[in-house]
Write a structure and sequence with these properties.
Blueprint: H1 13-24, E1 32-37, H2 41-51, E2 59-66, H3 73-86, E3 90-95, H4 106-124, E4 129-131, H5 136-149, E5 162-165, E6 168-171, H6 179-188, H7 205-220, H8 224-253, E7 254-258, E8 262-266, H9 267-270, H10 275-289, H11 297-308, E9 314-319, E10 323-328, E11 331-336, E12 350-352, E13 359-361, E14 366-370, E15 379-385, E16 393-396, E17 402-404, E18 410-412, H12 413-419, H13 424-427, E19 431-434, E20 440-443, E21 447-448, E22 457-464, E23 475-476
Parallel strand pairs: 1-2, 1-4, 2-3, 4-6
Antiparallel strand pairs: 5-6, 7-8, 8-11, 9-10, 10-11, 12-16, 13-14, 13-23, 14-22, 15-22, 16-19, 17-18, 19-20, 20-21
Helix pairs in contact: 5-7, 5-8, 8-10, 10-11
């Protein structure tokens, strides 16, 4: 074709590709990169473009998987072997045997097999860049499918041009090109490829979007693919900026953090923010701090409802992969569940109290029953006890335990724990002080019973409070 004076020859796809590689600096000259090749038109075109770079040419390592899903896969394997031999390219291949195919979810299983293989190839070749041949049409199809399917806003990014991973990064250099551009270029330079016959199967959702929906959208606006790429980049930027701004606030409300195990938040600080910020903070901490993924949006809303429900001071929600969200008054905890069952306290555990001796509680406070008063800033309760009341016993509290009140009535120990806002998990270790006649004298650190009788000898329950009893974990014998 000739061009008249004043007109310019159109820039070829190869030239655009060369320019993008230089601008983005995805790799350096002679740096090893792994290229995922399927023998389809997209990956074979990517391979051609890489081989014909005029600058910044990498060391190409072709990674190919025979999925054993099609009859022609054997011919494809022979073809890529011959191609790499002729072009002096290193080829690493894997076979996903039919006996490894699952009954259901074969597409997801195939992807998992591929990327496990790619990670191995990268490691063995000391490479940190994986190239895939996703293009603009793939991005539009993915974004539309995600929009129809529903889910987290992050999923609408679709396919990122560059994505960091544990091994380095995944780069999609063809994302700015359409399928049509790739096809025209491949035909013009006589690239050979294999067509996957399943690409025409309209029982597959992606194919319905590819052949029925996206073409109509292109008719409405031929620049539609560019807009999808732009929207994807804008959304990715907005999410990253939001997370960066969220980080200091998340650190502020974080009380404690054990990587991979649990984190604890201040409910008071959390609920000082608007509802939307609260949900965003919880989402940020769960996904970025604890690395818990795939939590549906409705679960974040459930967490928020429990967190802000003043009529329910305690509660637990199950999260994916054995995680729990626990609300306990002003403390919010996200913790990895160790077992699938709750270990109940051994209610028969008890021991005899030795007079004139301190016993420590796990919150740092202590108590003891003494025959004489001790000077100091202590809480002192006086009891008149007879010989039949001894020995005094310490044991775990039980349902039905009651304290005698000044008005002649009784109060359940369970109510004492609720009023004191003792977290549910800490109540299991709460102890009571009782006589040998099973009369409850006190819940050490919390409340004592009232006795009007002045029969027997005087004894003193002395309590030395060091910390808030709401954090009490149990009792230790000093």
């Amino acid at each position: 074709m000739s061009y008249k004076k004043g007109y310019y020859k159109p820039v070829s796809l190869q030239q655009k590709f060369n320019q993008m590689v230089l601008q983005n600096n995805w790799w350096k000259t002679d740096q090893p990169v792994v290229v995922a090749v399927s023998t389809g038109i997209d990956s074979m075109t990517l391979l051609y473009l890489l081989e014909h770079l005029d600058q910044c040419s990498p060391q190409i390592i072709v990674a190919y998987v025979d999925h054993c899903l099609r009859e022609q896969s054997k011919r494809e394997t022979v073809f890529i072997q011959q191609y790499c031999s002729d072009h002096h390219l290193k080829l690493v291949q894997a076979v996903w045997n039919r006996k490894q195919h699952p009954q259901h979810g074969i597409e997801a299983a195939a992807r998992e097999f591929r990327y496990r293989f790619f990670r191995r190839v990268l490691k063995e070749n000391q490479a940190t860049v994986l190239l895939t041949a996703h293009h603009g049409d793939d991005l539009a199809e993915t974004m539309l499918m995600k929009l129809v399917r529903g889910g987290q806003i992050e999923s609408l990014i679709g396919i990122a041009e560059q994505r960091p991973t544990s091994f380095g990064s995944v780069v999609r250099p063809l994302l700015h090109f359409s399928k049509k551009e790739i096809h025209q270029f491949a035909s013009s330079v006589h690239i050979k490829w294999f067509e996957d016959e399943t690409n025409r199967d309209l029982t597959i959702q992606r194919n319905r979007f590819r052949h029925q929906i996206v073409p109509k959208m292109k008719q409405e606006n031929p620049r539609m693919l560019k807009h999808f790429v732009d929207y994807s980049k804008q959304l990715k930027t907005l999410i990253e900026v939001n997370q960066e701004l969220m980080r200091p606030t998340a650190e502020e409300i974080l009380s404690s953090f054990k990587p991979g195990r649990q984190l604890t938040l201040s409910r008071k600080l959390m609920t000082s923010y608007s509802d939307d910020v609260q949900i965003s903070l919880v989402k940020f901490l769960i996904e970025k701090k604890l690395k818990i993924q795939n939590i549906p949006l409705n679960q974040f809303e459930e967490i928020h409802r429990l967190m802000t429900n003043t009529a329910k001071p305690q509660g637990t929600l199950s999260l994916p992969n054995g995680w729990l969200f626990i609300k306990s008054y002003q403390k919010l905890t996200i913790v990895k569940k160790v077992d699938n069952h709750v270990i109940k306290p051994k209610n028969d555990e008890q021991f005899m109290v030795i007079l004139d001796r301190w016993y420590s509680l796990k919150d740092g406070s202590r108590f003891g029953v003494f025959t004489t008063k001790i000077l100091g800033n202590y809480k002192i309760t006086t009891f008149h006890l007879s010989e039949k009341d001894f020995p005094l016993i310490i044991r775990h509290w039980r349902n039905g335990d009651r304290l005698r009140l000044k008005n002649g009535g009784h109060q359940k120990v369970s109510r004492v724990l609720i009023n004191a806002k003792i977290p549910q998990e800490d109540r299991l270790d709460t102890n009571v002080l009782m006589t040998s006649q099973d009369e409850i004298l006190a819940v050490p650190g919390l409340k004592s019973a009232f006795f009007s009788e002045n029969l027997g000898k005087v004894f003193y329950l002395i309590e030395d409070k060091k910390q808030s009893t709401s954090e009490r974990k149990g009792i230790d014998n000093e």
